[in-house]
Amino acid sequence: MYKEVKHLLVTKKHHLLLLSPARSSKNSWQPVVTTDTTTSSYWLNWRVLICGVCLVSSLVFTFFIILKYEGPRDSRNGSRETEEEKDHAGLVYEDELWKPSLRGIHPAWLLGYRLVVFFVLLIMLSLNVAVDGGSIFDYYTQWTFTLITLYFGLGAVLSMEGCYKYHKKVDGKGSGNLEGDAERGTRGVSFPAANSNMAISARNLGKIEAHNDRQIAGLWGYIFQVMFQMSAGAVMLTDTIFWFVIVPLLAIKDYELTFLVINMHSINAVFLVGEAALNCMRFPWFRIAYFFLWTTVYVIFQWILHSLSATWWPYPFLDLSDSFSPLWYSSVALLHLPCYGVFALIMKLKHLTYLRLFPQSYQSVT
Asked: What's the pTM value of the predicted model, to 2 decimals?
């Protein structure tokens, strides 16, 4: 009877803390170590083998997709790239990193948004560390929150550089000619509002002509693009599980959520959707590989940590002593698809809406 009661108490603690700590006292939120994860018997079994195959398969998938689609395609004979090669999904242009979606919006607005969001997220992350300590980084939520904070920080730096280039061109050519440099095919041509198809065609023609003047992004530009799409999937994953799985369980157990925890599982998605509405960055499907890679690296980190030290698992479904662990691992892996797809749908709706409402000034691509 004593063992059953102890098991129920331990299980309750595990279920309360699937994503991140909700109370300030460590004794109130840290789960109890129930299994010695440093023994060979814990790792040498069929469950670990199946989960390991899942991890290796994920790594193989991600590296195959990244090597196939990422980055600009250089012509094999060393000649200039064709227009089809320049338009492929893996390409990132330098001006896409700091230009707003609509040509009439000054880049300083996007810079201001990124700066404000960066400092808000940094303050929230710092408060979380001050309240619960560095051990919060055992959780996937804090990994993702840190990632999105770094994203907005890097985005602010790139926007500063973009604003400098913007004003440099304005000083050299006049304020009325800057946007025309990127979209020369549509500059000076007006179309009736009813004839949006003609405007869209001219816009596409302008993009083709502007390719010769646009500079391909450097390493930090590609890192920024990858962080954007990786953050999108990870934020959707953490917030979806929290609000649709964790919160109902906590409500049943009368567990009190703090204001900080609630905000950390909502404001990140709000800020990222706002960023998506303002920027003109692409969102190709193949970069879901980075989302898988992000989660896989987190799981491998947890495996290494637990093989070296008998510590508690931040999420019960990561515990390999559970006979259903292969099922939990597979379910979380499959959940990546709809979570990434939700944000891809948001980007698609943004593209269609802006293209319909602002056919002449919308300067983003799918």
From this structure: 0.81
